[in-house]
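Task card 7
Instruction: Convert sequence to structure tokens.
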Amino acid sequence: MLGISKVSADGHNWSMGAYATDYLEKTWPTSYGGRGGSYDAEGGKDAASNKNFIWDMCSVSNISYRTYGEFADDYKPNIPVLKNHFCPFYTSWDESIRDTTRFAQWKRDFDSLLLINQVPQLNTLRFINDHTQGLQNGKPSPNAHVADNDLATGLFIEYLSHSKIWNESVVFILEDDAQNGPDHVDAHRSPLYVAGGFVKRNYIDHTMYSTSSVLKTIELILGLQPMSQYDAGAESLWRCFTDSANSKPFKAVPAQIDLNEVNIAFNKWQKMSESFDFGMEDRVPDAPFNEVLWWYAKGDHAPCPAPVHSAFLKLNSEKEED
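Output:
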């Protein structure tokens, strides 16, 4: 999948609203560059909020909805449309809380709603710990953080697949943005996973989708109107579905990494990590953080590649000599 956004500041708006406001697109670069401004996304400022997010479209169309940590921080909603439509005990951004704990928080809420047949038609849920805390001493190692995130995702799909609403469910798992990391094709690329009763299994779709493709697919399923020209014109994920349900439940793969593993090394990468602010997403500068994680995964012998910011190759216009 090709993400349209550059960073989380506009990525959450794209993921939930199919565009980011002109104010937001023009101010996040100064904020991220340390030249002034603040993180105004996810409902932080009216000027940064879209006219409509997908929850607004649900509201006007009488489609039930609920959010778990997305546009809801400190156990309260960030925007008016989510008032009374959020889980009040779901933890949003706090890397000291495991994603497997967030899964348990969701499960508790889901079970209570399923018992009375009141599971909303649209649910947005956020797991965060694939961000990691670098090599800060005493914090979970990057491997432990990512393994926790993977396990929580697996447990979520497994539990939902055992529920009575599995055949009526579809789950889209995506990053709000690819965030600049080293990629041999383009720094905007990120994976997209789809699961559900009517979703093809053991199937890899090579179609180039965008973030808006996911919204387009959700809108078609729920009968919602598009929010912008981007989701209106996006390619839907119709190739991922089949016309017969597969009720066989999923089984989560146990973690192959010790989730209690913590950083213990003292080196320049650890010292660099100590200077990072992990109190909120994207407060850490991209390039140094990429270097820390690259060193952790690859070692000093493999230089960290620079990110590629265009999916199109620049062709040499000069005629080659014979």
